[in-house]
Amino acid sequence: MILSATNITVRRGPRTVLHDVSLEARPGEVLGLLGANGAGKTTLLRLLAGLDAPEAGTVRYDGRSAAGIGRAALGRQVAYLAQNGAIHWPLKVEEVVALGRLPHRSDAATDTAAIHRAMERAEVLPFAGRTTGTLSGGERMRVLLARALAVEGRALLADEPIAALDPAHQLDVMELLRDVARGGTTVVVVLHDLTLAARFCDRLALLAAGRLHAIGAPMEVLTPGHVAAAYGVEVVAGMQEGEPFILPWRRIEDGGP
Amino acid sequence: MSIPRRRIPSLVLAVAGLVAASTAAPAQAPVAKPQRIVSLNLCADELLVHLADRDAIASLTYLARDARGSTVAREAAGIPINHGLAEEIVPLKPDLVIAGVFTTRNTVSLLKKLGVPLLEIGIAHSPEEAAAQIRTVAERIGEPARGERLASDLLADFARLPPVPANRPTAVVVRPNGFTAGGGSMVDAVMTRAGLDNIAGRNPADRMGQLSVEQIVIARPDVLITDAEPGAPPSLAQEVLRHPALAAMPARKISVPGRLWACAGPELAQAAAILAAGAREAKP
Amino acid sequence: MSRFHAPSQRLLIGSLGALVLVLFVASLLIGYAPLDVGGALSDLIHGRDTLGALVLLQLRLPRALLGAAVGFSLGLTGAAMQGLMRNPLADPGIVGVSGAAALGAVLAFYSGLANVFALALPLGGLAGAAIATALLLALARNGTGTSLLILAGVALNSLAGALTALALNLSPSPYATLEIVFWLMGSLADRSLDHVALALPFMALGWVLMLRIGHGLDALTLGEDTAASMGISLKGLRLSATGGAAAAVGASVAVAGAIGFVGLVVPHLLRPLVGHRPGRLLLASGFGGAALTLAADCAVRLAPIRPELKLGVVTALIGAPFFLALLWRLRREAE
């Protein structure tokens, strides 16, 4: 599914949160959304998920508007993984994952198979029978990811899915997202880890103060100049085993480096 | 304290005959006819209107003007009223205060301390006790002749009632909230004189108790006596009287306004006459 | 998706339904005077106009029907509000919805409006409940903290209670002030089929509205954004829950007064049995509420206390310790 945002503007009171942002996410690719806190990443992701409507501009799904597709159909096609996702009742893990099938109302066998696939991919099968109250932060995040995977939609939008995870699980989840994209799904993910963004995303969109500062291949976007402008930090960058790494190194004081 | 609440005890206690009380406080010999009489009780209001000169009544209770509960609402219209508060009573400088033994107790004890002449009237449980109470009050306010006439008329009215048959129709009184009148009460006495057999009188447990609609229906009374007033303001208490199960009962239904037999007064005979007429038509 | 444990769910609903049936029959059998219920039933069926048939039809049947329907409404509403607010303390009594419904019904009743136009009574209850629910919801968006919910409940309950007392004090009826106990504690004594006919349509409407939102409440387990992303209309969900709660509680309170704690205790007891799924909890809580209310109403008639205890006294005796225990646990979890 081609997700396209065209000339998006969003205001919150007097503040402009997003200003004339246009971008496109394509099937089979992982698009990373980067930017400092408050740059508008989550706002943009929610617009792409159809949760909010922009003041100006349009969001389209394969060229159709959310209204044209319909709320229920959109729910079957676009999976959304919220930041710090809550689980309000102590459900069993497999039941949380099963909620991902809620938009479908398909037959039991189809649902059961999809639920099993999702739990397998997110590696939550070993604790499928536990209640969510007993899980660690990382396990919870993977359960919620499995829920989003169980939708088996044509697009997956994830808001900071690896923020609460240890390094090993961060790698696992990023690999999983790559893998999902390889299957033809459009993946958009909000990230703060520049190295993982560079390694696992096909393209990056860098937001700064509500504007799209840069978009393109990771190494075109994560130049020292762009990173300095977007985050106000100096980076250390290099190559390891033929892949780039980028580490924030020091804050740029006012008045320039 | 809310205003309407005070009326409940006076009505309920007065009719239910829960406790027998002395009909008069030890009477001091009246030096002169009291000229500024204050009443703190609805039953005393009614007696004063019947017995005293209008000019001698300084104040009646506010309840006296309410036609739903008072038999003297029209006569009371021009007389000043009180709400049973000591602050209202003292400035009137009463030379006699008549109070009920169960009502406005705080005011009464304060008036006692201030040395205000006081007559406390209890609850009459039979026409004879009512007549005695009428005479006591009349004596105390210096109108013994009027009292004697009222009392003997009342007793004569009762004497004229048809003789009580051996086989009396059964009856039960349903008041708002499902209250009934049990044995020993004035209502029970009036019913008996009128030729009715009060079912609630048999069981000492429900002397002044509440009866559920189910108990009333199952008791199969021949006569059902209510005091549902057509114009009464809405209340759950009145709803009981309109319950469809009561309406569907085969019993003969008689309505007796509660004000007729709530106090010792000439209206008791009126209540008895209504009941006696009903009893004749409802042969057991 | 809801297929996991579906057989156990059917078993639970079946057993609760059977329990309600048993208690319903028990409620018909228990009364203040001995009644040959079998004979009365046969009289009723054959159209014989006997005393037994009268008692059964006009007194015991409405009482049992209202016990079941009011209980179903309270249990179901508790489950729906808890699912919507994602807080196990959201009981219509505790958060003030029942109190506001009582105020609405009191205004309709004592003003005499209900005498002229009978539907004014349930509609008054409904209006009161709707205003309170809407207020709560406005106050408590996006998952409700326990302290906010309880404080809102305290505020709403005291305001509704004070206004109810004021309305009763200003009422011209001498009995009105005594009747505040009925409105605040609830009772099914001496209700008639008229009350059933008046309230049941509104309750049924509320049930339909609330039973429809099971999927939405399940989705809401993962928060409003996730639920919305799954195609759930949050506005529709809130409207159904609020409207349903207002109709069911408003009509219940209008004919039976505010019976507390049913909506707290029942969902709490049943939640583990439905795997904590808020959607599945709905129907189960309805039946559970009906069972608890019928049982409590049998208890007030069997207890040797006359005049009989108000129903709310019994449910509070059961419910208030529960409430404290629940608060205790939530406090521990918050630490």
Automatic annotation (TrEMBL), chain A:
Single GO MF descriptor: ATP hydrolysis activity
Domain ABC transporter: residue ranges: 3-234
InterPro entries for the chain: AAA+_ATPase, ABC_transporter-like_ATP-bd, ABC_transporter-like_CS, P-loop_NTPase
Keywords from the named record: ATP-binding, Nucleotide-binding, Translocase, Transport
Domain of life: Bacteria
PROSITE patterns attached to this UniProt entry: ABC_TRANSPORTER_1, ABC_TRANSPORTER_2
Pfam families in alphabetical order: ABC_tran
Function of the protein: Part of the ABC transporter complex HmuTUV involved in hemin import. Responsible for energy coupling to the transport system.
Family: Belongs to the ABC transporter superfamily.
Name this polypeptide is given: Hemin import ATP-binding protein HmuV
TrEMBL record, chain B:
Positions of the Fe/B12 periplasmic-binding domain: 36-284
Segments crossing the lipid bilayer: none
Record key words, sorted: Signal
Highest classification ranks of the organism: Bacteria, Pseudomonadati, Pseudomonadota, Alphaproteobacteria, Hyphomicrobiales
This protein's record includes keyword Repeat: no
Signal peptide: 1-24
Organism field: Azorhizobium oxalatiphilum
Protein name: Cobalamin ABC transporter substrate-binding protein
Listed Pfam families: Peripla_BP_2 (PF01497)
TrEMBL record, chain C:
Transmembrane segments: 12-33, 64-81, 93-110, 116-140, 147-167, 245-269, 281-303, 309-328
Keyword Phosphoprotein: no
Keyword annotations from UniProtKB, A to Z: Cell membrane, Membrane, Transmembrane, Transmembrane helix, Transport
Protein's cellular compartments: Cell membrane
CC terms in the record's Gene Ontology section: plasma membrane
Pfam family, one: FecCD
CDD domains named among the record's database cross-references: TM_ABC_iron-siderophores_like (cd06550)
GO molecular function term, any single one: transmembrane transporter activity
Membrane topology qualifier: Multi-pass membrane protein
Family: Belongs to the binding-protein-dependent transport system permease family. FecCD subfamily.
Protein name per UniProt: ABC transporter permease
Organism annotation: Azorhizobium oxalatiphilum
